[in-house]
């Protein structure tokens, strides 16, 4: 059961990063989606440190899948892309917490 959940979650992470990559040309549309996703992750108990773990797992997975195509430039591009996803989701979670504490 846990393995099935982890596989599903891994697929969801990859889809989210793919959405981010596709949405980098339209940040006005992408940012609210990622902020809401970050707020939703609070309910799952996700903490800021978890984003780094997921990011490293994503990069290792891409490195393994891409083989020789995994160049320093490709790594940097994916690192920056995941960085956008991470910081935007964390900002969404932080803003959600702040609004709910102030209410």
Strand-helix topology:
Elements (H helix, E strand, L loop, with lengths): L1 H22 L3 H16 L5 H19 L5 H31 L1
Helix pairs in contact: 1-4, 2-4, 3-4
Notes on the structure:
The protein has 103 residues and is mostly helical. It is globular, with a radius of gyration of 15 Å. The longest helix is centred in the C-terminal third of the chain and has 31 residues, at 72-102. The protein is built from 4 helices and no strands.
Structure in a nutshell:
By secondary structure, the chain is an all-alpha fold. It is built from 4 helices and no strands. The protein starts with a helix and ends with a helix.
How many beta-strand runs?
A: 0
- Which geometry do the CA atoms define? globular
> Runs with pLDDT <50, length 5+?
none
Oligomer description = single chain
Structural class, by secondary structure, is mainly alpha
Mean pLDDT: 89
Sheet with the most strands?
none
Spatial gap, N to C terminus: 38 Å
Roughly how many Å is the radius of gyration?
Answer: 15 Å
Strand fraction:
under 5%
